[in-house]
Amino acid sequence: MAMLSRALVRWPRFRKVNGVSRGPGPLKAAERRAGILFSLPVIVLTGALIFLPIAQTVYYSLTKWNGITSTFVGLGNYRSLVSDPVFWRVVLNNLLLLLAIPFAILIPLAVAFLLHQHVLGWRVFRSIYFLPTAVSWVVIGMVAARFFAGRGILNDLLAVFGPGVRTDALTNEYTAMLAVSLTFIWSVFGTNTIIFITGMATLDQDVYDAARMDGAGTIAIFRFITIPLLMRFIQFAFILTLITGFTALFSLIFVMTTGGPGYGTTTLEFFVYQKAFAQGAFGYAAAIGVVLFAVVFVISLLQQRVLRSRED
Amino acid sequence: MANLRRRFGRGLTFAILSVVAVVMLYPFYFMLQVSLRSQSQYVTKSGFSLDSWAGLFDVLPVGQQLLNSTIVTLSALAIILVVSTMGGFAFAKLRYSGRTFVLLAIVGGMMIPLQSIIIPEYVNIAQAGLVNKFEGAILVYAALGAPFATFLMTTYFRGVPSELIEASIIDGASYFQVFRRVMLPLAKPAIVTVAVLQFIQIWDDLLIGLLFLQYPDVRTITVGLATLQSSRVINIPVLMAGSLVSALPAVIVYLIFQRYLIAGLTMGMRK
Predict the structure, then answer these.
(1) Hey, is A62 helix, strand or coil?
(2) What is the pLDDT of residues B185-206, one digit of tens each?
(3) What is the radius of gyration, based on Cα positions, of chain A?
(4) Minimal Cβ distance to A57: which of B120, B247, B253
(5) Do A50 and B10 touch (CB under 8 A)?
């Protein structure tokens, strides 16, 4: 899922038509035949296991279906959805997750800026920062759960401030969401740092030198040169982080909180799983899946519009 | 004076980067340290033993599940590589009507969240009798990885000069021979990038395994670990030992191929 937005950034490339046109004749027919044959496997695979299911999901969302009997109910599931307070609680959780995104962007941005100074061992630091990208959300969640738990490391750290200072983050609806968000920020830190350091490598060193010559301090350079010049990369990281947060946190939530306490950490994505596979409300769950798809679709469209306006 | 300030600045930068490195590495240290204690030692926070490592093999069929993960990951990877290199070649270099539309659709497939298709996916795979069989999970992983891999291969093949292909065709080679002998050898870096990205993605996944491989003897290690956590007896040092074991293969792949991973992430972001 994280990969989708990577592609979207480069979407305009597909408008380009490349290669030279070749004349008609048997060669062209052979090329057409080869083209169809070579693209057939990927068409069949994605057609059967991605495009057919999304159409089925839309159909399921219009039925009441418990796994055995199904009846067509039109927009009934959507109507129950908007009048379901739990649904709005879940939407709120997605919005809370949104609040984590500025931190998930700004911290890596600042650290990438420091990495770009190329101090001793910066390559080692880069490898270390990127390491969590290779680690499953399951494992990350496993450790994070111990970190935030009542008898966890966080309280050992807080004990420095006195015996009364303690927290049991995972047992309260809102602090549990905070704990999930913090873990999320930690997990995407490496990816975003790499995106920004790649961006910085494309910037012209002369601009920095000129600014320094004119007496600009480090903070001023960061604020007035690095950030504006990196806008394209910041947008890319933003959309990648947003879509990861909305569609790839299932394992993290499953391991850390299983969506609780209450519905405290149930996001749209997790809600689909709960409704379908824990409660057997397949039609209703499909409707949530359609909503999630629509949300991601709109985000992607917005992203493209922003990119296009910047290119003009 | 300016030199001194500069040196101080670099020293401070190094210090901050070190602190961040500690924050990023701490979980790994935590897993290792806790896994080397027994449950009682974990509670008292003193002493070390290998009890938890021995215990891990009692509660989790580690070897079997590592093998399952390997089978599932490598099989899905093989399918992804075959369909994406073939598709990438067609979309980048072979002209036929409908090409642009099909490519756009497949790239658009990346926009579909897994949760939005998971219900019919499960129903279809169940109807085909492939739940709790490797084949079902392999097919689903392959399909999910295919769009991005195809996109990446298409982008890569576009950089290959068309003259190379035309010359071979005029010399009497078939398109399949061109694909085998010209395109595939050229695509090695892109193939490695796709392989590394997908290996990590599939190895680390939970949801597909959770739904499609439910019996302990077919589960992948990541799923085994996640279900261990939700079982009755929660022995934290054992969980941490399990976490390390499940994370290790993907981390090793990362350490060997990180160059390709970074290339895949940032490919095409440059102008």
Answers:
(1) coil
(2) 999 989 999 999 899 999 999 9
(3) 24
(4) B120
(5) no
pLDDT, tens digit, for every residue of B171-183?
888 999 999 999 9
Task: Specify the domain boundaries for CATH 1.10.3720.10 within chain B.
Answer: 58-266
> In chain A, where are the structural domains located?
85-311
What gap in Å lies between CA B230 and CA B247, rounded to an integer? 19
* Cα separation, B212 vs B223, whole angstroms: 11
CB-defined contacts A:B, below 8 A = 315
Distance (Å) from the C-alpha of residue A270 to the closest C-alpha of chain B?
8
Quick check: B125 and B61 in contact, CB under 8 A? no
CATH code linked to domain B58-266: 1.10.3720.10
Q: Do the Cβ atoms of A41 and B115 come within 8 Å? A: no
- Give bridge partners of residue A72 from the DSSP assignment: A63
Q: Which residues of chain A have pLDDT under 50?
A: 1-22, 312
Rg (CA), chain B: 24
For residue A261, cis peptide bond before it (omega within 30 degrees of 0): yes
In DSSP terms, A71 is beta-bridged to: A64
| Token pair 């990648």 in the structure block, residue | A240
Topology adopted by domain A85-311: MetI-like fold (1.10.3720)
